[in-house]
Design goal:
Blueprint lengths: L6 E5 L3 H13 L3 E5 L5 H6 L3 E7 L7 H11 L4 E5 L4 H9 L4 E4 L4 H14 L14 E4 L4 E4 L2 E3 L3 H11 L6 E2 H6 L9 H16 L8 E4 L3 E4 L2
Length: about 230
């Protein structure tokens, strides 16, 4: 029987790694199930038992990228990729396919548990910016208004678009390419334009909250908004 924290499906072909991850998750109150490949993943998801999937990239047969793509066709279950590939393109592929986060091997098992908790918090029922009036951040799409702790932050339309995109899924890492899609159809929008807008947003926030790190840089990938 699953704990209140939910059950975690671990798809990892390296037994030693899986054993350590299972042990740390169980210590923190999670039930787990381990599979060495993704042959049964869709039928397992259909049971409704699992709250999140930890998915290795380098698997026998269908790799983690293929599995992530297949899972996203049938389910929005949170996915954290586990990968020994450190190239930026490999991390971007996972995020573009719909993964919610990633951890690079070798990793600390405590970090894996922390990321599992963070992703589950973001996916908990009813957790959206429109519903989260008790949170310090309010994004009003209708009036193009951003408020932090009740303080209105004046943004340009382009800056607001970026904050709204990042705020749609707090904690998710967005690549620059994904953020560029926000400006689809506009001319002269490049990677450096995204960086410039982010810099300006941070300056405006810092005028009122100098210690608040709302929009965080993720090295080699892009940005995330962290509440």
């Amino acid at each position: 029987m699953s704990t209140a924290k939910g059950e975690i499906l671990i798809i990892e072909d390296e037994g030693a790694i899986a054993e350590i991850v299972v042990d740390y998750l169980k210590r923190d109150g999670f039930d787990t199930e381990h599979r060495v490949d993704g042959n049964e993943v869709q039928s397992l998801i259909a049971t409704g038992r699992f709250a999140l999937i930890l998915l290795d990239v380098m698997l026998p047969g269908a790799d983690g990228f293929e599995l992530c793509r297949a899972i996203r066709k049938v389910s929005a279950i949170p996915i954290i990729m586990m990968t020994a590939r450190v190239e930026e393109i490999d991390r971007l592929i996972g995020l573009e396919l719909g993964a919610d986060d990633y951890v690079c091997k070798p990793f600390s098992p405590r970090e894996v548990v922390a990321r599992v908790k963070a992703v589950l918090r973001r996916h908990s029922p009813g957790e959206s910016l429109k519903q989260a009036d008790s949170l310090p951040l309010e994004i009003d799409q209708d009036s193009f208004v951003l408020r932090l702790y009740g303080k209105k932050i004046d943004l340009t339309p382009s800056e607001f678009k970026l904050v709204a995109a990042l705020g749609a899924k707090p904690g998710r890492v967005w690549s620059r390419a994904q953020l560029l899609d926000v400006f689809l159809g506009e001319k002269d929008v490049f990677d450096r334009t995204i960086d410039s807008h982010i810099k300006n947003i941070r300056k405006k926030i810092a005028q009122y909250f100098p210690d608040l790190d709302l929009i965080q840089s993720v090295y080699g990938i892009g940005y995330r908004l962290e509440l």
